[in-house]
Specification:
By secondary structure, the chain is of the alpha+beta class. The chain has a single domain, classed as Outer membrane efflux proteins (OEP), CATH 1.20.1600. The chain has ten helices and six strands. It has a four-stranded antiparallel beta sheet, with no helix packed on it. The chain has a two-stranded antiparallel ribbon with strand order 2-3. A hairpin with an 8-residue loop joins strand 5 and strand 6.
């Protein structure tokens, strides 16, 4: 009885796991998987870890430092001399240089005054950490965009496969009608042969569409860190947000992008870091005040005790270095100018990306609206052509023309739909905002545009 219950529980557990594995993945789930498994994310985090380690190094060089060292030395020749011993009346040998020497040293070092070196080095390294952290966010945004586009490509390929399958079914219906009319003697054999040729072409397109689905799934699996041939099922995407094309203005999106894109934040931190490192190079010309100390345990000799200690106040002041420090200053100035130029270039590039994203989204919405209207007309035209052919009024040529137009219209509608999804994803990425924030901004622009139009009409 217990074995039966145990077996039933194992079967139920396996069934639940398999059901979970076979359930369709949402876009959010795919994004989460990619962010956990993709090597680019690990690479960006390792770069952040390296920046954090360099920041800790910059802080540690200005903190107290204590070192221990030990030396065991064999030496020669030995040096000694003898003196009379008044207590024993004999001679006593005193060694000045012994055949061996043992030394144990503890040294302490602490910077007292760095004259700007400490703050510049620590702040510069801290800004590098902030820049690396922003680049982690930039890498995540790029990966989210890639997953979203790959997700949409899979759904688009599946929809195109369905379009091709429906085209095959329609051609089969026409072929059946042509055969019936030929057998009834009201249509020539040519209609049957033409229908068979059209069926072969439609089946070939169907095979191509199925291969497109396989390739699209392989690309998505690769992003998710899964085997490229692993089975994957996806949940459908919601309908694209309805926006009046005239309401889409690029200026608000560019403003948001320049304020929110992680690449811009990283560039700003790089500039601040370069400024601090320039200060560090200039501060290296200033004096440096150190406190050092040491305590030594050593082998006792005739002229030295078995220990010694000392405390030192050290002042270092650079006088002549053959131009080394000045060349470092020039290098840091060039690095700062380079960071400023890169930021200007990045600002122009992001502005162009946003402009393109806004225009592409605008065109995608217009294309989708047009494609859906054309699809309605193509479906009705094919229905009428088929009815006319079956009734002996129309010709088969009309049916094929309507069939080709319908297949093209459905393909155009699918392509426009998922182009709109990808254009919206590109718009989200280019602005540096979340999807919800972009939707709210689009609604705000639409409401503002409707208000302005209402005021003009009045």
């Amino acid at each position: 009885m217990r074995n039966w219950i145990l077996g039933l529980s194992i079967f139920v557990s396996i069934s639940i796991v398999n059901a979970q594995d076979q359930s369709p993945l949402t876009l959010q789930q795919c994004v989460e998987i990619a962010l956990k498994t993709h090597p680019l994310i690990r690479l960006s985090y390792r770069q952040l870890d390296a920046a954090i380690a360099r920041s800790e190094q910059a802080k540690a060089q200005w903190l107290p430092e204590l070192t221990f060292s030990g030396v065991q030395r064999r030496q020669g020749p030995t040096v000694s001399f003898t003196i009379p011993n008044p207590l024993t009346g004999g001679l006593t040998s005193i060694e000045i240089v012994k055949p061996y020497m043992r030394t144990l040293t503890a040294e302490f070092r602490q910077s007292l005054l760095s004259f700007g070196r400490k703050s510049a080095s620590v702040q510069g390294a801290t800004y590098q950490v902030n820049a690396a952290s922003a680049m982690v966010q930039a890498t995540q945004s790029q990966l989210i965009l890639a997953v979203t586009e790959a997700y949409a490509n899979v759904l688009a390929a599946q929809a195109m496969e369905e379009v091709a399958r429906q085209a095959v079914e329609r051609v089969k219906v026409v072929l059946k009608t042509a055969q019936a009319r030929y057998e009834a003697g009201v249509s020539p054999k040519f209609d049957v042969l033409r229908a068979e040729a059209e069926l072969a072409a439609a089946e070939e397109q169907y095979l191509t569409a199925r291969n497109g689905v396989t390739l699209a799934k392989a690309a998505l699996n690769q992003l998710l860190g899964r085997p490229t041939d692993a089975p994957i099922e996806l949940s459908p995407l919601p309908e694209p947000i309805e926006v009046e094309p005239d309401a889409l203005k690029s200026e608000p999106f560019i403003k948001q992008a320049l304020a929110n894109r992680p690449e811009m934040r990283s560039s700003d931190w790089q500039i601040k870091s370069a400024e601090e490192f320039l200060k560090l190079a200039k501060a290296d010309k200033n004096p440096l005040l150190l406190l050092t100390g040491s305590y030594v345990r050593q082998t006792k000799t005739g002229f030295a005790e078995n220990y010694q200690w000392g405390v030192n106040l050290v002042v270092q002041f650079p006088i002549f270095d053959s131009g080394r420090r000045e060349s470092v200053v020039k290098e840091r100035e060039a690095t700062l100018d380079q960071a400023l130029a890169q930021r200007e270039q990045l600002e122009r590039q992001i502005s162009l990306e946003v402009e393109q994203a806004v225009r592409n989204f605008q065109v995608a919405l217009q294309r989708l609206k047009t494609a859906r209207a054309a699809l309605v007309s193509a479906e009705e035209a094919f229905r009428l052509a088929q009815v006319r052919y079956e009734g002996g009024v129309g010709t088969q040529v009309e049916v094929w023309d309507a069939q080709v137009a319908l297949t093209r219209a459905r393909a155009n509608e699918v392509q426009a739909l998922y182009d709109a999804h990808k254009a919206f994803a590109r718009l989200v990425y280019s602005t540096g905002l979340t999807e919800a924030e972009v939707r709210n901004l689009l609604r705000t622009l639409t409401a503002s545009n409707q208000t302005n139009n209402g005021g003009e009409q009045k």
